[in-house]
Amino acid sequence: QSELKYFNYSVVLNKERKIVYMGRVDDSWQKPANVKKKYLEDALTALLEGKKIAKAETSPYGCSVEYKEEK
User: Fold this and answer.
1) DSSP assigned state of 57
2) Tens digit of pLDDT for each residue in 46-64?
3) Cα angle at 63 between 42 and 22, to 5 degrees?
4) Does the pTM of the predicted model rise above 0.85?
5) Which of 1, 12, 38, 52 sits in a 20 to 30 Å window from 71, CA-based?
């Protein structure tokens, strides 16, 4: 069992269950007042409006999360 409580990474699926966005929520996870770009919000808005998502992937902040596959 993981002790992971928070993870600043999002995945958005379309109605066909295909990944259409994955990455950061925004460009300033430490200081919400400094947010200039809302990647997740922009992706969801484009998807709901039937438009192409301008930036379909962004790099997450922080370190990677590794886990063992259970056998």
Assistant:
1) B
2) 999 999 999 999 987 766 6
3) 25
4) no
5) 12
